[in-house]
Amino acid sequence: MSEEPLLKMRGVKIEGRSDEKWNPIINGVDLTLARGEVLGLIGESGAGKSTLGLAAMGYTRDGVRISEGTVEFDGIDLLKASASVKRELLGKRIAYVAQSAAASFNPAHKLMDQHVEGPVQHNVLGRGESEDDGIELYRKLRLPNPEEIGFRYPHQVSGGQLQRCMTAMAMSCRPDLIIFDEPTTALDVTTQIEVLASIRDIVEQFNTAAIYITHDLAVVAQMSDQIKVLLKGDEVETSDTRTMLSAPTQEYTKSLWAVRSFERPLKPAVHTGAVPVVSVQNVDAAYGTVPVLHDVSFDMHEGRTVAVVGESGSGKSTTARCITGLLPPKAGQILVDGQVMPADYRKRSKDQLRQVQMIYQMADTALNPRMSIGQIIARPVQFYLGLTGAAKRKRVDALLEQIELEPTEYYNRLPSELSGGQKQRIGIARALAAEPKFIICDEVTSALDQLVAEGILRLLARLQDELSLSYMFITHDLATVKAIADEVVVMKDGRVVEQGPKQEMFQPPHHAYTDLLLSSVPEMDPDWLTNLLEERGVDNIGDAAVDNM
Amino acid sequence: MILWIATTLIGIGALAWGFRFAGQAATSNAPKFRDMPFGVAYGYVLGAAILLWLAWAYVQGRSPDPAIANKFFFLRIAIEGFIIFAIAAWLFRILGRKVGTSWSRKLFRSMPLTASFGILTILIYAILAIFAGLLAPYGQEEIIQGVAANIVPGGDPALGGNPDFYFGTDQIGRDILSRLIYGAQNTVGIAFATTVLAFLLGGTLGFLAATLGGWLDQILSRSVDVLMAIPSLIFALLLMTIAQIWAPQLGIPLTVFMVVIIAVIDSTRVYRLARAVGQNIVVMDYIEAAKLRGEGLGYLIFKEILPNATAPLLAEFGLRFCFVFLTIAALSFLGVGIQPPLADWGTMVRDLGGFVNYAQFAPLAATAPLLAAGAIALLTVAVNFVVDWMLHKSSGLKE
Q1: pLDDT digits (tens, 9 = 90+) for A417-450
Q2: Does the CB of B297 have a partner CB in chain A at under 8 Å?
Q3: Does B64 touch chain A (CB under 8 A)?
Q4: Which residue of A has its CA nearest to B111?
Q5: Which phi and psi (to 5°) does residue B136 adopt?
Q6: Nearest by CB to A326, which of B31, B284, B288?
């Protein structure tokens, strides 16, 4: 390409202020983007992806500054440009799509009112024209009811639709560059497909350049022409998508690619007639008068992992709440070792409570921030096993060793001094401290980076073999299911749609919904999305496909 | 007068425009001046104008002609006080950075000047209150024989003062300095006890309501709503009037009634905060984990919830202390609070209040009631500075 690139960042260094000094976030990254080209920016959390994305607009968050380098957009140096020049550019020629559309729309205004604000403000279009254009964009993005959807409030449309409305809003001035900051991370796989397909379409149609920030490799493989890998503020490597996927040169990139290969060996089938550790029998449950679960039944056996999958709102976590007794079921019962458990956790004995332990999705909120690691793990040891003094300390040290953390180093630390993966390990140790037979893992890896998540999965697998634990593994990520599950339960709208051993579940024939779920998981193949769309037809993806069922 | 103000403001506007233009020219369009909105430039120039006026007024206040000097007397005292306090706070912070444990030294290093001023002031008040008996030259109820009443503060015999009584004497000949020192003990001590009681009551009930919810929460919250619907000072006045009749019959000092009444009224505000903070904590997963473990109510409240609620509660404690303290001063001013002859700042302001009328021609005489009022104001400001800093620190930790 001979023409001048649209965006040129050279030697950009970004620093953030904490503890009264400036700490580096980005250590000199170059970035070049031609018109109509899509660049995928990937890396773990804390790698500086979002910061670099914002810097491409010449913008930094509070307490962050661009200390060195140049950001040149179409010949204009954004770092030296005056506020009024930037005001002209931002929104009109450079647009931004945030991770959480639900948090970024103003809930007090209708979608269309927010959509037209940009074009009217920048004198691109009049209000009426802009509204017509908005409806046209909604149609292009395949939103249902394009004439009418703009006149709803943000809370009246679904998450995936909202994300597409936000993309439409970013397109409203036909910018030259759009920055997508993890636009599909908060969405279910079936919804994610729609958003991905529509973003890709619209970027192609208007020849817009884009920076696509994500931590999901499979997603970035579908979306981008080039991929740039970041690690702790440094660029690891950059190349075009196909080369990057087939022949990464750096060790770090290879390790990222390899994560998805972890898979446990198959276990022999359970004896017929064996008493399941936990058995959920015909459970109906409701929040107030709203029914959530309908006749849910499945068994979990010793030393096995049952993965419960489904999209958000399908009743996975509610089932867990019924098992723990936080939400007493309206009908049906929970059996542990063949014994009926009291429905309400307050009526269960200490020993009954001990048998069912839980690991939470957000380790940040699952650990008391004012208690040291030692105190957190010691409490169940003392509470259930009655150990005190040196015996308690010995047990806590043993538990810390089991989760691969050095006891002397971590005993007195506070949760805020640990990384996300380490916090999750403490959550596991707290559950193990009760010496349970059965642990509920509620989306334990979904808030973690892939490498860290893989470490947690391996740890859980090892502990299962050593202690013959049973896991109920709640997740929406089918890659995790493939890695760790022995049996799979698919849920939708509070019902069990299909269940069986893993090897059967990943082989056709499936229930239609399971099929949709499985085929919606992005694969590393860059042609995957294109092929899938051809296969399904444009009107039969995501929500539309669910509705057609 | 209005015309004069308008002209000044417009003049400042013109100056502001000139200032920004000059800045742009001098720095060859540095972003600071180039992107400076007019309002900001106006603010700079207005601030400079006010500073200039203050300097001029201070010079006027030092004028040998009493007619001119008296006009600016209080402004002069305020400016001198401000500078002295600022220097004292600065020195105190340097001391704090040099002396003490590594933890306290680190604390002082990140402390703004306002907070170190607040801590210094609170420390001085605390020392005065604890050692009042040793520090005060006379007793709080002592009518000193052979000394005139109403000696003017300042200790200058030419202006009607007495160097032995630098802060003057009140209308029945008691030493004002001694009464101010004892006032610290009475007013601040009682306010502290009241606030502690209010927190014990409101905090416990608030956490209970947040943890248990349901009908207990409903009953407590609605009762608190009823109490909060009544204007607090008028409610306190009403109850104190009733208590004035009961106190002698039951043989309990009126002060005890006052402490309980103010504590109950103020505990409603503490309850609201504790319940709101508690509700945010109760939904956390670690509370759910503790509940599922089978932990009792006491463990949940004291081990899991309370440690996470200390920052907002501590900040509220500072603010609440100020309000309680002001309520006591107000009640005493109205004659139903701390009873004479006990020294109390609110009572002192009321008793000497008449002298404020002399402010125009004899500012020293008018200082007498303002000493007690100033003591109240200074402590309130100091506590608020410390609270602001603590709030800032605790919110910064969350990020």
Answers
A1: 888 888 999 999 999 998 898 999 988 887 777 7
A2: no
A3: no
A4: A20
A5: -75, 130
A6: B288
* Cβ within 8 Å, pair B285-A379: no
Contact yes or no for B292 and A325 at CB 8 A: yes
CA-nearest residue of chain A to B295? A383
Kind and range of the H or E run holding A213: strand A209-214
DSSP A7-33: EEEEEEEEEEEETTEEEEEEEEEEEEE
Terminal CA-CA length for chain B: 50
Q: Which residues neighbour B392 within 8 Å (Cβ) at sequence distance 6 or greater? A: none
| pLDDT tens-digit readout, B139-185 | 877 777 777 777 777 777 777 777 777 788 877 778 888 888 998 88
C-alpha of A542 from chain center: 17
Q: Max alpha carbon distance in chain A (Å)?
A: 76
Spell out which residues of chain A touch residue B289, defining contact as CB-CB under 8 Å. Answer: 358, 360, 366, 430
Q: Which of residues 227-256 of B touch A (CB under 8 A)?
A: none
Alpha helices, DSSP H, located in A124-231: 127-140, 146-149, 159-171, 189-205, 217-223
Interchain contact B266–A (C-beta under 8 A): no
Contact between B177 and B166 (Cβ < 8 Å): yes
| Residue A238 host element (H or E) | strand A234-240
Give the model's confidence band at A1: pLDDT under 50 very low, under 70 low, under 90 confident, else very high: very low
pLDDT score recorded for residue B6: 92
Which residues of chain B make contact with A360, given a CB cutoff of 8 A? 285, 289
How far apart (Å, rounded) are the C-alpha atoms in residues A469 and A467? 5
Instruction: Say if the Cβ atoms of A430 and B285 lie within 8 Å.
Output: no
* CA within 13 Å, CB half, A15: 11
Sequential DSSP letters for B115-141: HHHHHHHHHHHHHHHHTHHHH-SS-SS
Q: Are B275 and B316 in contact (CB under 8 A)?
A: no
Q: Which tokens in the block code for residue B281?
A: 């904590």
H/E element, A65:
strand A64-73
Asked if A353 and B35 come within 8 Å (Cβ–Cβ), the reply is no
Residue for token pair 């999958």? A309
Q: Distance (Å) from the C-alpha of residue A82 to the closest C-alpha of chain B?
A: 6
Q: What distance in Å separates the CA atoms of residue A212 and residue A220, rounded to the nearest whole number?
A: 7
Residues forming a β-bridge with A306: A472, A487
What's the burial of A100, exposed, middle or buried (CB within 10 Å: 0-12/13-18/19+)?
A: middle
| pLDDT tens, position by position, A197-253 | 888 888 888 888 999 988 878 888 888 888 888 888 888 888 888 888 777 788 887
β A487-492/A495-501 pair status:
antiparallel
Rg of chain A (C-alpha set): 25
- Round to whole Å and give the CA distance between B81 and B73: 12
> Which chain B residue shows the shortest CA-CA distance from A436?
B293
Do the Cβ atoms of A368 and B304 come within 8 Å?
yes
Cα–Cα dist B292/A326, whole Å: 8
Q: Cis peptide leading into A436, omega within 30 of 0?
A: no
- Type and span of the H or E element at A479: helix A478-484
* Spatial distance between the Cα atoms of A431 and A324, rounded to a whole number of angstroms: 13
Q: What is the ipTM of this complex?
A: 0.77
- For residue B186, the number of C-alpha atoms closer than 13 Å in the C-beta half-sphere is 26
Best to test chain B binding among A317, A334, A365, A385 (most B CBs inside 10 Å): A365
Residue type at B41 in one-letter notation: A
d(CA A256, CA B12): 62
Q: Are B294 and A83 a contacting pair at CB < 8 A?
A: no
**Taking the CA atoms of chain B, what radius of gyration do you get in angstroms?**
26
Asked if the Cβ–Cβ distance from A360 to B289 is below 8 Å, we say yes
Tokens of A215: 């931590």
Inform me whether the C-beta atom of residue B31 falls under 8 Å from chain A C-beta atoms.
yes
